[in-house]
Amino acid sequence: MLNRIAPKAKDFTNQRAYRNRPLTEADKLANRRNSSVQAKVEHVFRPLKTL
Asked: Shortest CA distance to 11 belongs to which of 2, 22, 19?
């Protein structure tokens, strides 16, 4: 559905491992890159959340 609305949109969510499908090395690298960016953004907004 999202592809029809915004065909150029990218999915920046972390991939999840399941019982019968472990993460590939490419998924692990992508998750690490996404998590590092997400952490930098979340740390900025933490003081605002605690007010």
From this structure: 2
3-17: pLDDT as tens digits: 889 889 888 889 999
Q: Which domain holds residue 48?
A: 22-51
Residue 1 lies in a domain: no
Q: Compute the radius of gyration of the chain from its Cα atoms.
A: 15
Structurally, the chain folds into a number of domains equal to: 1
* Nearest C-alpha neighbor of 31 from the set 46, 1, 11, 6: 11
pTM of the model: 0.67
Note whether residue 26 is domain-resident: yes
